[in-house]
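Lab notebook, design round three. We kept the backbone fixed and only want residue identities now. Task for the bench partner: fill in a sequence for the structure below.
Input structure tokens:
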């Protein structure tokens, strides 16, 4: 690890280095800022890089560490956040011309918690417009996959995935409504978790869907992901949907090992014509590694869950259309074509269809909970295929988002936990012959992120893929 550049050190490693005063928070922050400014034009990860504010925070962290007093969990660590999260006095664009000049009047609770932990915020990260996905023309630059600049990053937390994978920040926050953390994390070869719905506050976050939205960490290692979630999870009285359940020590859970853990393998997620062969083989190899580590496996059935993508579109998109109703009427031309078409189409969904889709959500949740009553964790691919090309990865007619086998195929994997409000994590499990990352996903019981971290960490350490970085 001593030969690893600062920008590819783990969050946990950087925090420890600075606590031991073997590195300066200002030095570390400058290294990340310099790299971000040098590569951002090529990668399109950031909408805003706040050098002045980041260095001021780094100096405060350095002073706190030098004083020898108690410091926060993330003291001095350079992070970045998706640009739907409010920072007082800073623009929150949501990746859209509609909000291009909006300046937040107050901090989100997430920003307050990160700052309380001592973190340094480098800036605001690019995304699909309004966190919806399929954007054709990004007004602040097109995010590009650092493993292959001709490939897409997935949506909507695209800039977050790019910045973490390319070493432009030590970790990032994204949001996951129907896969917006897990998809980009899988395509860019990093770790990302969708926590249980209500585990993390959403106060001060621009919504897509009130009944789906979650905020979660995107990192290079599972331990880093656990530390980030530790810093932001917990009840927030300003978010009436946030859970009051206690937050466990996620890092401690990593030490427990996984011998005796029961893995469920959903038949419908492996026997699917749209699942590409390289992805299937990589996930099956990963399952064999997990068995060697002491887990047991059993086949389970989720007959309704493959329809999770259709259920998601018939509910989350309608929620989004309700939020955007006034802007669609008064500023429709300021939206990206794909976003506008999707929102206007959702505006036409009959109330009867919306209610039926909401009832179907309960069926999917019931299926998953039944499977998880017989197992501890479900293991499956994160997406049905690796990252598509930039052209295919937009909402253009005929592209990835209109392909039944690929987009709805990937929604088959990512939508089930979303419609159920369950936690799910993705971790890299291999690469295609052309060098594109492949993701392995685990789904857990409500508020049992600790078990997801245990299993993902054990696999990650055995596979050792976290040492691989994009060929930039």
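Proposed sequence:
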């Amino acid at each position: 690890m001593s030969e690893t550049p600062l920008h590819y050190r783990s969050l946990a490693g950087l925090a420890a280095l600075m606590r031991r005063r073997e590195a300066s928070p200002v030095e570390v922050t400058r290294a990340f800022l310099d790299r971000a400014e040098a590569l951002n034009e090529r990668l399109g990860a950031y909408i805003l890089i706040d050098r002045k504010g980041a260095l001021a925070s780094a100096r405060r962290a350095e002073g706190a560490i030098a004083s020898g007093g108690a410091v926060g969990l993330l003291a001095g660590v350079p992070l970045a956040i998706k640009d739907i999260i409010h920072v007082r006095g800073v623009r929150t664009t949501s990746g859209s011309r509609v909000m291009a000049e909006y300046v937040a009047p107050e901090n989100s609770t997430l920003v307050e918690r990160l700052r309380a932990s001592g973190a340094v915020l480098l800036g605001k990260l690019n995304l699909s417009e309004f966190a919806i996905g399929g954007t054709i023309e990004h007004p602040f630059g097109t995010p590009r996959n650092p493993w292959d600049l001709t490939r897409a990053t997935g949506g909507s937390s695209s800039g977050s995935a790019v910045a973490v994978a390319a070493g432009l920040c030590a970790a990032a926050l994204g949001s996951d409504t129907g896969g917006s953390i897990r998809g980009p994390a899988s395509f860019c070869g990093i770790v990302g978790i969708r926590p249980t719905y209500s585990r993390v506050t959403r106060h001060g976050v621009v919504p897509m869907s009130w009944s789906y939205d979650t905020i979660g960490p995107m990192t290079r290692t599972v331990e880093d992901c656990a530390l980030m979630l530790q810093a932001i999870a917990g009840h927030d009285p300003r978010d009436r949907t946030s859970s009051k359940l206690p937050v466990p020590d996620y890092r401690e859970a990593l030490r427990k090992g996984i011998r005796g853990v029961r893995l469920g393998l959903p038949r419908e997620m492996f026997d699917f014509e749209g699942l590409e062969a390289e992805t299937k083989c990589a996930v099956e190899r990963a399952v064999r590694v997990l068995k060697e580590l002491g887990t047991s496996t059993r086949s389970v059935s989720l007959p309704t869950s493959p329809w999770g993508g259709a259920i998601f579109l018939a509910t989350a998109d309608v929620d989004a259309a309700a939020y955007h109703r006034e802007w669609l009427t008064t500023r429709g031309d300021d939206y990206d074509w794909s976003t506008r078409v999707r929102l206007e189409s959702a505006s036409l969904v009959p109330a009867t269809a919306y209610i039926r889709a909401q009832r179907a959500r309960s069926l999917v949740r019931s299926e998953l909970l039944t499977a998880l009553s017989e197992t501890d964790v479900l293991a499956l691919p994160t997406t049905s295929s690796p990252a598509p090309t930039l052209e295919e990865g937009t909402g253009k007619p005929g592209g990835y988002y209109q392909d039944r086998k690929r987009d709805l195929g990937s929604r088959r994997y990512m939508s089930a936990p979303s419609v159920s409000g369950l936690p799910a994590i993705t971790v890299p499990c291999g690469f295609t012959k052309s060098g594109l990352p492949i993701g392995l996903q685990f789904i857990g019981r409500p508020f049992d992120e600790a078990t997801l971290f245990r299993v993902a960490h054990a696999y990650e350490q055995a596979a050792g893929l976290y040492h691989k970085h994009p060929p930039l």
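Keep this in mind before ordering anything: The chain has one domain: 7-467.
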